[in-house]
Amino acid sequence: MVFFSRVINWLDERFPIKAFYKKQFSEYYVPKNLNAMYVFGVLAMLLLFNQLITGIWLAMSYTPTAANAFASIQYIMRDVPYGWLIRYMHTTGASALFIVLYIHLLRGLMYGSYQRPRELVWLLGMTLYFIIMIEAFMGYLLPWGQMSYWGAQVITSLFGSIPVIGKGLEQWVRGDYLVSGVTLGRFYALHIIAFPILMVFLVYLHLSTLRHVGSNNPQGVDIKKHVNKKGVPLDSIPFSPYFITKDILAIAVFLFLFCVVIFFFPDGFGFILEKSNFEPANPLITPEHIEAAWYFSPFYAMLRAITFSLFGLDAKFLGMVVMMSSVLIVFFVPWLDKSPVRSIRYKGYLSKCFLGLFVVSFLVLAVMGSLPVSKATTWISQFATLGYFSYFLLMPWYSRFETTKPVPERVSL
Amino acid sequence: MNRAIFIALLSCFFSLSAVAAVSDQGIMTPDFNDRASLQRGLKIYSNYCSGCHQLSYMRYKEISIDLGIPNALFEENLLPKYARIGDQITAAMTPADAKRWFGAKAPDLTLEAKRRSPNWIYHYLQSFYQDKSRPLGVNNLLLKNVAMPNVLEHLQGQRLLQCKQGETAFKAGHGCRTVAGEIKGRISEQDFKQIAYDTANFLAYTADPSRFERESLGLKVLLFVALFSVFAYLLKKEFWRDVR
């Protein structure tokens, strides 16, 4: 023990670890009424870490060439000791990360966590989410299965629908006339080096801005209004040990569910590993039904929902614009929400209805995006797209003119 | 809470394994614990499939270990003359020959059970029927204009297509099935079903050989995480006692 404290002191004289621990853990004050919805941030971080570590080990045995990529995945699954475990952790981790992020985002929308003074936390978080989407998209090409190949082919072809510069841009992104080994090589480099670095940097920014302004809470009460003599909010408790122990419990429960999938249902009933991806990529045979990974399904449904040309613009281009806007519009929520209160608990009837509409639309779009195109799915997707966007575009009105309930001065457990 | 889930899950697995391998609706469930079936499946693959179809992601050695066939015995009886026990399983027919003889490459079967499903393979093997319009004289209800000959025909016997009036094969919801023809097979219908089952079961294994190790390790990991959760819960409860 004496030796340990001497090491700490030696370090502290050269690098302020004690002050860091105080500021970020033992004297970082968090609202005491945070509920279970507040554990998904730490779970997302855990999963990003999981992706990073398993990714490093996958990269040791994976071959990023069109001729060998598919076989090298099978080599990992069969010949590398515990290769199957590392790969299933990576594939299941990707899907789990999106589930966790969608709940994390919903939490933010429910409790108004994006409102002043947390706009920057929201913007950085959304940027991080956008980067994770691109990261996942590029990673999906690497197994070089049929669905990998044709998914990448369809999405990169969207660049080609941009007027005037489209065709050149499409070729520039692919590095070839169609998705090929060249595309695979660059996606691999970006997937394992460029985007992970960006992600780690953005996690750092997202967290440090959060730590600066402090967490919101389910009631949206500003806890900094009532402080004791030392300036500590009355309704707060220190991050360590309270939220450390809570997060450990959350991680344990999450790991249980995660391991059930990894060890017993690694294909995720065709949602984590699609059937058609067990067939090597074949540029000459287009699958009948190209579907996006489930976590992109809602956005893919919006892309397909636009079946008409407008103002001389191609339907495919308009679809891409709608798909991109559906992600970009979420960035602007802090300025679309004109409500005097943060939490959904004190917002009016309209806000609750529109949030409900948003969630239902998102889920319906997810289902539609995974079904083969038909007249019915197109119609339903179009309506759900309207529902999705109306939540955001009408927010400045319904959030301003509805009657809200009074927000309590102090938080309650 | 966690424990309850765990117990529910455990009992779920046990009840699953108790279900008959082929249900009344004719849906087959692979059974990796039925080693005899997997070994029979290997026999059928070696005798009937391996001439044309590779299992290129699988090694002879892994099969010998997983299926409990002693190395020496395997090398003596099951290993082709040109191969060594550590090799990946290749077929004698080259892709170029396949193209010339059948008009299509014979697909690698390692992952076929994942790409389609074990159940599909089980029914595919039973769905061949006589069709004069095809170059090999046979067609398959599950794979239109199949390029593969019915290699098991001498076992199953000739099958004929029988459709409801006005129906033809390969239409959605067609009312067609195959019935026994004049030339009888060497074995009974029930025995042939078993052959189809064993083959599908074996290919389910080659598509997912880590399952043996995965599920036994999984139970241990879940047990640990469940126990860990209990302690994490008690720790959290202890610390949060004074929060009001």
Automatic annotation (TrEMBL), chain A:
PROSITE patterns, A to Z: CYTB_CTER, CYTB_NTER
Entry binding sites for heme b b562: H90, H191
UniProt xrefs under CDD domains: Cytochrome_b_N (cd00284)
A GO molecular-function descriptor: oxidoreductase activity
Organism, scientific name: Marinomonas spartinae
Membrane topology category: Multi-pass membrane protein
Name by which UniProt lists this protein: Cytochrome b
Reported cofactor(s): heme; heme b
Source taxon at top rank: Bacteria
TrEMBL record, chain B:
Cofactor binding mode and count: Binds 1 heme c group covalently per subunit.
Leader peptide range in chain numbering: 1-20
Superkingdom, taxonomy of origin: Bacteria
Any GO CC annotation of this UniProt entry: membrane
Protein location: Membrane
An MF annotation (GO) of this entry: metal ion binding
Cofactor(s) this protein requires: heme c
Residues that coordinate or bind heme c: C49, C52, H53
Keywords: Heme, Iron, Membrane, Metal-binding, Signal, Transmembrane, Transmembrane helix
Entry-linked Pfam families: Cytochrom_C1
Keyword hit for Iron: yes
Transmembrane segments: 217-235
PANTHER family: CYTOCHROME C1, CYTOCHROME C1, HEME PROTEIN, MITOCHONDRIAL
Name of this protein: Cytochrome c1
Originating organism: Marinomonas spartinae
